[in-house]
Amino acid sequence: MAQLITVFGATGAQGGPIVHSLLESGFRVRGVTRNPGSKKARALIAAGAEVVKGDLGNILSVEAAVKGAYGVFYVTNFWELFGRDQKTAYDKEIEQGKAVADVCKREGVKHVVFSALDAVKE
Fold first, then answer.
1. What are the C-alpha distances in Å from 39 to residues 16, 35, 36, 44, 46?
2. Between 61 and which of 54, 71, 97, 102 could a Cys-Cys bridge form, CB atoms 3.0 to 4.6 Å apart?
3. What are the DSSP calls for 49-83, one per residue?
4. How many CB atoms lie under 10 A from the CB of residue 10?
5. Local structure of residue 48 (DSSP, 8 states)
């Protein structure tokens, strides 16, 4: 059976192409999105992905999405968080990133790819 890769942000600018590339390469893909009923999510289902509801701010949904995965790709949504002050957004992005990494470690995920904005001023 093909290995399962979980892709957070599956309907986004980074996650969507990754889902398609993984499917074309023969992986099983679990796409995670906040709106599994969206047009983009339905297109991923039609392409062969499993699509589940999840949010990086909800640890239970992260745990459920990662369960049984061989690999995980995740991208934080800095721009959504940026609606707050920049320091709070930065801290929240780090918090979410660490939370997913911790879940991946506990679940024994073999490969993890993390994408975030770079702190270009530091």
1. 12, 9, 9, 9, 11
2. 54
3. -EEEE--TT-HHHHHHHHTT-SEEEEE--HHHHTT
4. 29
5. T
